[in-house]
Amino acid sequence: MRSDMIKKGYTRAPHRSLLRATGLKDEDFEKPFIGVANSFIEIIPGHFFLDKFAEIIKDEIRKNGCVPFEFNCIGVDDGIAMGHSGMLYSLPSREIIANSIETVMNAHCLDALICIPNCDKIVPGMIMGALRVNIPTVFISGGPMRAGVDQDSGEALDLNSVFEGVGAYEVGKIDEKKLKMIECEACPSGGSCSGMFTANSMNSLCEAMGIALPGNGTILALTPEREELARAAARRICEIALDEKYKIKNILNKKAIKNAFVCDMAMGGSSNTILHMLAISREAGASFNIKDLNDISKNIAHVAKVAPSLPSVHMEDIAKAGGILAILNEISKRDNGLLEPDNLTITGENLGDLIKKYEVKDYKIIKSIDKPFSHTGGLAILFGNLAQQGCVIKAAGIVGERKFSGKAVCFNSQDAAIAGITSGKVKKGDVVVIRYEGPKGGPGMQEMLSPTSLIMGRGLGADVALITDGRFSGATRGLSIGHVSPEAAEGGMIGLLKDGDIIEIDVDKFSINVLLSDDEIQKRKKEWKYEGKEVKSRWLRQYQKLVTNASNGAILEA
Predict the structure, then answer these.
(1) Model pTM score
(2) Residues 350 and 407 in one domain
(3) Which amino acid positions bind Mg(2+), per UniProt (predicted)?
(4) 473 has catalytic annotation
(5) Which of 84, 148, 449, 520 is the most buried (most CB within 10 A)?
């Protein structure tokens, strides 16, 4: 056992003495030691109940002959950190979480790992840390929140409804009483926010990668079904704890990452998944080039639309319709060679055999492969002179035309953009440009849900495009293009734009360009100056020095 390093032999008497202080007995030193990486934190709706959830898991681990050791990771709630300086810390928190997992697991030589994430950066951070440790690992998230209900119309509500409600209130579309009702009803329970936002996207991709049991992405939080899934995950980590076949890198390899991208395109996941999966691929030693993703997007049908792309559908509906593996089963009916069915999963079965057990139960929610929402994926990577290293759009969330041409209205920060949109500076036909918000420029690559929600709430969603070197919340919809690389702080083209420049976007051609001559572009490059922002935080200054751009997953390079 790996844990013999801290518990076997006379030289480890001091180590055992310390372990006995935690309650261990003689017989426990013969058992596998399981790390239980929890992410309990009281301020996050998807995490405030994970202390009790972890008790269920630890109980089951003890019943199955292993010794659990729980430790905790930090977490940032992107919704609460949204629209102010707190968002600077969201993406950097992914690296702290990865480092924490690596540190605790390797410092104490534990045999196996079960991770309990739920929201936003916590899922990819835990995956990245687990890959560095490379021992048998199972993921079991806390589960999604159920959707809220509009007390007036009976329509489904979610967090995005509240953000867009703010924009609607500002232009007089709804009154304060209506906004308060939406606020109070949109998030009715614990769990990760109820749409196909970043958290639920990543928890679903854990199924596609084979590192979580079926249902991980869709079974609702705080239900008996979720608790039983937790017990099953705990039993499974005990079964595989000492089996090297189930080291996470043997499962989460290049094939698994490809399967994740296939699933992502089919279900129209959050644009943040591209950033995180690129980072995960590098930790797995199976790097993906962002340019290769369109080969998947061009050939994968988009069969599931979930809020925000389709506001009436939420994760509970996907669960009832068959779940994530039913989506993959449907996709597999058209053999285009993209899905890798022979890859091992933690269940002991390969993915191809596993998904055969999950049929679509409701073709209104999960479309058939013959009649999908679209014959191309729900995410796309655009290239052109405005994004030579690529940028990302959630094509599933477009509410207007997929081809757009308009005049640039440039803002050098998210705060300036919010002020400009609120004051009416942005009109129909404009392309809002928010720059110097990339990984280095922010630093921290803030999410732009507030600007996009203001645009949607003001009824401009079909008539205005937005491009940024920052990110978007998984709740964002509309013609919103993020992760523009190179970013403005690197001297990228987005930093050279001027008000009035004509920008052309063609999602079906995967292109984004500014209509400027090469001579004009070269002239602007020579004139460009960037002094940088004053960054007071020591941690954010460290992050700024080490972070790479979005086309590399915004990983840190020492």
Answers:
(1) 0.96
(2) no
(3) 78, 120-121, 447
(4) yes
(5) 449
User: Which ranges in 210-253 belong to alpha helices (H)?
Assistant: 224-240, 248-251
The answer to whether position 166 is within a domain reads no
**How far apart are the C-alpha atoms of 208 and 213, rounded to whole Å?**
10
- 347, 358 contact by CB (below 8 A): no
Between the CA of residue 102 and those of 60, 110, 268, what are the distances in Å? 24, 11, 31
Looking at residue 145, its pLDDT comes to: 98
- Among residues 141, 450, 473, 551, which one is catalytic? 473
Same-domain check for residues 346 and 392: no
- Are 57 and 102 a contacting pair, CB within 8 Å? no
Flag whether 335 is marked binding: no
State yes or no: 158 annotated in a binding site.
Answer: no
Q: Which amino acid is at 276?
A: H
Neighbours of 23 (CB within 10 A): 8
| Residue reference for tokens 């109940």 | 49
Specify whether the CB–CB gap between 203 and 216 falls below 8 A. Answer: yes
Q: Give the CATH number of the domain where residue 403 resides.
A: 3.50.30.80
Q: Do the domain assignments include residue 467?
A: yes
DSSP 177: H
- Is residue 370 part of an annotated ligand binding site? no
State the average pLDDT over residues 453-475: 89
Clarify whether residues 442 and 480 are in a common domain: yes
Q: Are residues 511 and 403 in the same domain?
A: yes
The radius of gyration of the chain's CA atoms, rounded to the nearest angstrom, is: 23
Count up the domains in the chain and report the number: 2
- Looking at residue 158, what is its pLDDT? 97
Structural domain boundaries, residue 101: 31-142+192-356
* 78 in a known ligand binding site: yes
